């Protein structure tokens, strides 16, 4: 009887072990590693809202809200995999749309890559690369402006003269580093990199970033500065690269230490601004076109560790390390025409929170 009992226990143990090995598990248990979509393929792995145990009843209200707010495309990635991908108003997965100022962060990325290649040093004067007289400021004031000032929006040049960045329009208003103002002069970093690399801006961009992560799209010149146009997945690929600390699979594309600088406060005036990245969770912030300081977080409903690429008329890339999320929104202005941030950000995050929490 004892032998039979021992034998039965052995068989039962084996059966339980096999059952455990074959038991269904969620994708997060099976594979929680960061995923990168293939560079030369349209395939992209997905997760479902239910896989993540999110609130499935909140998804349709979120999509309805996005449609009501003039959205053309919306994506949520979780650890690189697509959870939500939706297109509105005849916009499709292959339709291009403009990044507007969300594309400023592409210039940030290329600046970090060029510095790692010893082509530039962001602490150097802009005139070291472009020569003197690239502004109409007095020479001693022009020589105060570094590449880092361009990336931090504290060049001291007058932001009230329109979008044009011709020499005549780049006028002194304050010493570099003493005043934060949202200004298109950042595009001079593209000229710096083109000069230092002996290539065109778009050629260098394509070689060191676009082609390496499988982006599509192109730079289109508008009012003497470049605006990037691409499909939504290309915007999401860039967001994923940033979420992965500048790495694509096993290749470090943007230096991690530079990216860490870029996504933290870059100067003492606007705590919610890095190198062309907007930062949430800081005690104060400034807005484009204003010298006022506002108390509180940039987007109160969003996670405090979130940082964002924000473009005119509500082009968005949100990166949230604590939630393993990259979120992309493209479209027309949700409400009123705006430079970058709008009340839509906070309202949208209320809807996103209802889904993910």
From TrEMBL:
The keyword Protease does not apply. It comes from the Bacteria. Coiled coil: none annotated. InterPro entries: Beta-lactam-related, Beta-lactam/transpept-like, Diverse_Enzym_Activities. Residues 1-22 form the signal peptide. One of its GO terms (molecular function) is hydrolase activity. Keywords: Hydrolase, Signal. It holds the Pfam family Beta-lactamase. Residues 73-337 form the Beta-lactamase-related domain. This is Serine hydrolase. The lineage of its organism: Bacteria, Pseudomonadati, Bacteroidota, Flavobacteriia, Flavobacteriales.
């Amino acid at each position: 009887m004892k032998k039979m009992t021992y034998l039965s226990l052995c068989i039962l143990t084996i059966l339980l072990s096999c059952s455990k090995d074959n038991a269904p598990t969620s994708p997060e248990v099976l594979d929680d590693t960061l995923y990168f979509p293939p560079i030369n393929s349209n395939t992209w792995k997905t997760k479902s809202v239910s896989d993540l145990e999110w609130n499935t009843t909140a998804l349709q209200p979120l999509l309805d809200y996005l449609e009501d707010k003039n959205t053309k495309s919306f994506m949520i990635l979780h650890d690189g995999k697509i959870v939500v991908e939706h297109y509105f108003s005849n916009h499709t997965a292959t339709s291009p749309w403009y990044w507007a100022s969300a594309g400023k962060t592409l210039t940030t990325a290329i600046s970090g890559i060029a510095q790692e290649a010893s082509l530039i040093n962001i602490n150097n004067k802009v005139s070291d690369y472009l020569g003197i007289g690239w502004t109409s400021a007095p020479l001693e004031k022009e020589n105060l402006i570094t590449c880092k000032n361009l990336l931090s929006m504290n060049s001291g040049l007058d932001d009230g003269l329109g979008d044009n960045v011709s020499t005549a329009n780049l006028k002194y208003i304050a010493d570099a580093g003493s005043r934060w103002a949202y200004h298109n002069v950042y595009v001079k970093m593209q000229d710096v990199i083109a000069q230092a690399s002996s290539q065109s801006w778009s050629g260098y961009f394509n070689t060191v970033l676009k082609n390496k992560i499988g982006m599509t799209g192109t730079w289109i010149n508008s009012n003497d500065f470049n605006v990037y146009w691409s499909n939504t997945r290309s915007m999401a690929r860039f967001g994923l690269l940033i979420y992965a600390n500048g790495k694509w699979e096993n290749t470090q594309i943007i230096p991690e230490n530079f990216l860490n600088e870029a996504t933290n406060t870059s100067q003492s005036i606007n705590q919610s601004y890095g190198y062309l990245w907007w930062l949430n969770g800081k005690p104060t912030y400034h807005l484009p076109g204003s010298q006022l300081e506002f108390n509180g977080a940039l987007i109160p409903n969003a996670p405090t560790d979130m940082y964002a690429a924000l473009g005119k008329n509500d082009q968005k890339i949100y990166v949230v390390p604590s939630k393993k999320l990259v979120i992309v929104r493209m479209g027309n202005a949700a409400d009123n025409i705006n430079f970058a941030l709008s009340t839509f950000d906070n309202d949208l995050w209320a809807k996103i929170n209802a889904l993910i929490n």
